[in-house]
Amino acid sequence: MTYSVTLIPGDGIGPELADATRGVLEATGIGFDWDVQEAGEATIAAEGTPLPDRVLESIRRNGVAIKGPITTPVGSGFRSVNVSLRQALELYANVRPARSMKGVASRYEDIDLIIVRENTEDLYAGIEHRVGPDAAESIKIITRAASQRIARYAFEYAVNNGRRKVTAVHKANIMKLSDGLFLESCGQVAAEYAGRVDFEDRIVDNMCMQLVQKPELYDVLVLPNLYGDIVSDLAAGLVGGLGVAPGANIGETAAVFEPVHGSAPKYAGLNKANPTALILSGALMLRHLGETDAANAVESAVRAVVAEGTTVTYDLGGSAGTREFGEAVAARV
Ligand code: NAD
Q1: Whole-model pTM above 0.85?
Q2: Least confident piece of the model among 124-128, 188-192, 207-211
Q3: Which SS3 state, helix, strand or coil, does residue 277 take?
Q4: Which domains does the chain carry?
Q5: Is 30 exposed, middle or buried (0-12, 13-18, 19+ CB in 10 A)?
Q6: Whether the CB of 315 sits within 6 Å of ligand 1
Q7: Cβ pair 21, 326 in contact under 8 A
Q8: Fewer CB under 10 Å: which end of the chain, C or N?
Q9: What digits encode the pLDDT tens for the residues 236-266?
């Protein structure tokens, strides 16, 4: 089986991470037909936009993309490519696993959380305005359709990945209508999974405290956009930070896999940055494609090389380059 996959190397450290990731994914023996699409800083000069239409067309055609980070130019008038992609392709679910890794310094050892964030509405719908000179209003949009869709994604994820519980996170005690609708929608979907996956809910402030004190009590979390943005970084912090945090943006017809971190321009071209988050995003892509054995092999190889600690990048206390780390992981696969 050969998969056609859109590969967006990105800019900054992106291209180096993408090379390392490609080597690891190819080491699984699975065939990839890489449709390489440049986007970001380089295409602004050449094509007048950081996100040419051909990139979207490629992802629509292939249904799957893996993407390095892309710089959001400050003050240039261009929107974030990352946000534009999610909106154009209606990538409604942002999935971020947070799993402890031996060899990565953190406060806990056994964290294994999946954060499922609704990616299309809430306060991120971008509807805000000034009310006179001294006040401003942002409108929080919550719909039953989007809330049920994200809840269903979370429950399906739980069923397909042997997870036992979904926790809906909200502030329905204060925002009784909007967050109330989110919670109600999650409860409706949960009823369809009764007996297979447990369901509970937590108020978001309490959730943050509980995640810091008793993270082992939680499994899959489903959240509206804003809380999801914040709590997923909290969860990444529990397992050692953004450098090792993979992510997936999933829609009905396309999915884009990318690390949580940005383009770290100061390390660009230095063969220094850690490709772990992009490689693990590649493992999420394999899982999405149904290639579970290959996904497990990639994750185990990353974990083994990081735990061993002899061929790791500067951020994990080593002196290996991006390329050497990638080669060590590929050899393990
Ligand atoms: P960043 O994540 O790029 O870098 C923050 C710091 O984290 C870096 O200086 C570096 O010390 C460390 N770091 C990040 N990734 C690393 C890696 N793989 N290996 C080792 N160290 C790593 O965040 P930033 O500096 O706020 O953003 C830089 C640019 O990236 C901005 O233009 C921002 O808009 C963009 N960005 C893009 C994405 C994306 O493409 N999805 C996400 C976040 C930020």
Answers
A1: yes
A2: 124-128
A3: helix
A4: 1-99+240-333 (3.40.718.10), 107-238 (3.40.718.10)
A5: middle
A6: yes
A7: yes
A8: N
A9: 999 987 889 999 999 999 999 999 999 999 9
